[in-house]
Amino acid sequence: MKKLCYVATIPAVVHSFLRAHIQAAAATELYEVTVVCNSVDRHLLDGLPARLIFLPIERKPSLLQDVLAARKLYKLFRDERFDIVHSIMPKTGFMAMLVGWLAFVPCRIHTFTGQVWITQHGAKRVLLKWVDKLIGGFATDVLADSASQRDFLVNQGLLPRSKVRVIGAGSICGVDPSRFRPDRQMRQDVRDELGIPQGSRVILFVGRLTRDKGILDLAAAFPLLVKEFPDIVLLFVGAEEDIAFGKIQATSNVESECLHYVPFTPTPERYMAAADIFCQPSYREGFGMTLIEAAACGVPSVASRIYGIVDAVEDGRSGLLFEAGNVSSLCMALSKLLADEGLRQYLGDTARVRALELFSVQKITGEMMHLYGNCSNNGEKAKDGKSVSP
């Protein structure tokens, strides 16, 4: 039995993006699975068929804490002699790939889900860009969760095209149609819980409340839309990060019944089922998993035209794309969908078909298991002293 270890910063990431892979790997009985992350919201990992190891890995940079966590991770890797280590997120990617290389882990996989340095400037941008380049250098296998992100990484000189690949048509884990689906009863229940009239048109955002997600652009656009469509509601779902919901309220400056907020939830599908339009106005995304989750619920999207998102949303077929950071363009796209129920229905139906055909969890997870199998075989060859291409 091979020893497979996943490394992430927080349990929420494991729950949202890695759970299906962990379950599939454990079900094959070919892998003994371990998950390493910090212990914040550890209850999200309940029922996971894996050994859980909690290390004090902070999300924000902390030199002393990061060095201590890296030392513990190195000892774990040396003691356990994992066959495969798979990391996600920049900090744990750098830590796991470097420590895995030092500990002679034969198969070191990292998944890029977007580049944090895109919205940075000066020395910070250069430093973060070099971190991504080092992650790719220490990894034996690099995954991008969209074809456009892969092309971006190659064009920026971070990785040779031969080293980075995309699983299936993209996404890190695919979408589960048994969870994400149209559900009239769920739609009604969520609206009743939040006090949203059943006849209102709901615009939904799901994700971290951070500037890079473009949520202040959405907050600025909303009062302009309310003038034209008085019955609309804007719903934000996600943990506060560098933007508090109070900042969104102040920017929107609309009546409280028009604006709703739900903190982080492990069941985003409930709120997607209650929505009419999903909005993702990000400045950077590796793919945009929530876009295909909303699509599987039959909800059309309005999203920024950036790498990653252009793979998740087919403009004019599963949603509408607009220029990132352009509030006027965002307003126009949302207004077009709000005004045309037939267009919403058409885009939502097409989005669901596309999501299930291209991004089903079974398809993406199956290809990931195939990658692990090839990686394990290459690792065995490396242990035998045979030449193995990275």
Keywords:
single chain; 390 residues; alpha/beta; seven-stranded parallel beta sheet; six-stranded parallel beta sheet; 13 strands; 46% helix; globular; disordered C terminus
Write up this protein.
The chain has 390 residues and is α/β, with parallel strands linked by helices. 46% of the residues lie in helices and 16% in strands. It is built from 14 helices and 13 strands. It has a seven-stranded parallel sheet, sandwiched between helices. Helix 3 links the parallel strand 4 (84-88) and strand 5. It starts with a strand and ends in a 7-residue tail after the last helix.
Question: What general outline do the C-alpha atoms trace?
Answer: globular
Q: Give the strand order, joined by hyphens, for the main sheet.
A: 3-2-1-4-5-6-7
The residue fraction in helices comes out at 40-55%
Gyration radius from CA atoms, angstroms: 21 Å
Tally of alpha and pi helices: 14
What structural class results from the helix and strand content? alpha/beta
Approximate strand percentage: 15-25%
Unreliable segments (pLDDT under 50, ≥5 consecutive)?
381-390
Biggest sheet details: 7 strands, parallel
- Quaternary structure annotation: single chain
Mean residue pLDDT: 94
What is the straight-line distance between the termini? 23 Å
Which H/E pattern describes the elements?
A: EHEEHEHEHEHEHEHEHEHEHEHEHHH
Total strands: 13
Question: What is the element layout, followed by pairings?
Answer:
Layout: E1 2-7, H1 11-28, E2 31-37, E3 51-54, H2 63-80, E4 84-88, H3 90-102, E5 107-112, H4 122-138, E6 141-144, H5 147-155, E7 164-166, H6 184-194, E8 202-206, H7 215-228, E9 233-237, H8 245-252, E10 259-262, H9 268-273, E11 277-280, H10 289-296, E12 301-304, H11 309-312, E13 319-322, H12 327-339, H13 341-358, H14 361-383
Parallel strand pairs: 1-2, 1-4, 2-3, 4-5, 5-6, 6-7, 8-9, 8-11, 9-10, 11-12, 12-13
